[in-house]
Structure formats: structure tokens, C-alpha cells
Amino acid sequence: MRVLVVGTVPPSGGSFAQLLGEVAADLAEQGHTVEVCSPDARAAAHRTARLDGLWLALEVALGAARFDALVLRLEPGVPCRPTTGRLGRALALVALGAALRLWRDVTIRVDSPAPIPGGFGGRAARGVWASARRIVVGCEEDAAQLAAAPGVERGRIAVEPPGRSEHAGGRDGWPAPTEEDLQEEVLALVRIRAASGRGCNDARAALGAASAGPFSESVFATPPRRGLASPRLARLVLVEVGRRALRR
Length: 248
Fold this sequence. Notes:
Layout: E1 2-6, H1 14-29, E2 33-38, E3 47-48, H2 54-63, E4 69-74, H3 86-100, E5 106-110, H4 123-130, E6 134-137, H5 140-147, E7 157-159, H6 182-210, H7 230-247
Parallel strand pairs: 1-2, 1-4, 2-3, 4-5, 5-6, 6-7
């Protein structure tokens, strides 16, 4: 099966990125052909792309013709930035919901707290949740809020907290020189970062081995695509999504 994974994976992105990277690597090890598309050029992805607003809907719509399944991470900036207004949020979510209907198998993984301005609810988000076969959230509180949103069945919601393993992290910064047991603190941080690097390399190796053929041999990110201004992009996204939906 050909699987498109969309979202930030390590080394950037925190514990939820680590979780997504593990999901992608597991799929590759199971024999699926996996391609990772990330909004962060530092991620160990096959390629990068702009994934905020209508750009995400366009990326998802175009991928439906080449892949059998989609794993989409909703994270800060994907699909909406924190500063996105109500109209921009509604347009992005409606377009994304229309694009997701082109897929047969959709899994949505949601960071905690929910990175969508305004939360899980709202008519604009209904198409997004309705298109997912499985929705994975990080805690029971998010699951309860999502279950209360219109059109969401509780049976499709799974709770999967990000792990606190050595690969997922520990402290982010170096200890202060005045801390007690400074040597142990420094050694612990070095071990954590070394383990994270090994985990990232393992993910690169797994994804690279699984991505032979139509995809680039390099698993390192390429520069994000630039181009169309927002008004023209909006027209193109809606036309393309509508055209593909009519074909079905």
C-alpha cells in the first residue's frame, strides 16, 4: 500500500513529531511504500511543502491520485496558524474536508492541545472529521471534546499520548552551572540527544528503504515550494477539489 504521511517528523517538532516519525517508520517496516511531506525543512522527510491554509488542501487533493492511504498530523500551523481569522479558518477547513473526501483511508492525528483556533467544533470542521476512518488524540480530555463535536462518532477516536522515552526527550536546554549534580545532568542530556539522533537516523533508514522507485532516493527535505498568491491559489484549490470530487 502507498501511504502519504503529512506533518512534521523529527528531529524537529517535539514529542508528537517523534510519534508521527515512529508511525511512518513502522508502516515502512511493514512493507508499505511511505512518503513523508513536512512543513519543516529540518525534518527527516522526503520533501517539504507549505501546509497552512489552502496549501494543505491542495497538497492533500493532489496526493489522492498517487497514494492509497493518508496519515495527516494536525499541528501548530497545520492547517491554521494561531493568528488565522475566522474566515481564513473556515475556508481552510472546508477545503481540507473536501480534499479528504477524495481518499479511501484517512487517519488524522491531532496534537494536544488541539492546534485549531476555536477548537474541534464548528460546521467548517465537520467535513474534516467525517472523512477520517480514525482520529488519534493525545489525551482523554481532547477525546471528550472531539466526541462532542457535530458528526463525530466516539468509536473512531483513539487516545495515544506521546511517549516520554529517551527518544522523545527529557529536558531541552543545558543545565545551569550552579545546579547540583551538574556532571550527571550534562551526561543525561547528552545521552538523550544521542538517542534522539539514532532514532532519527533509524527513521531515515526505514523510510529511505521503503521509498525506492517514484520517489527521490534522498530522505532529506528539499526547499519548500513557492509560488501562487493566495487569491489565485484559493480558486485553483476549489476548482481542483471540485473537479476531482465530480469524477467520483
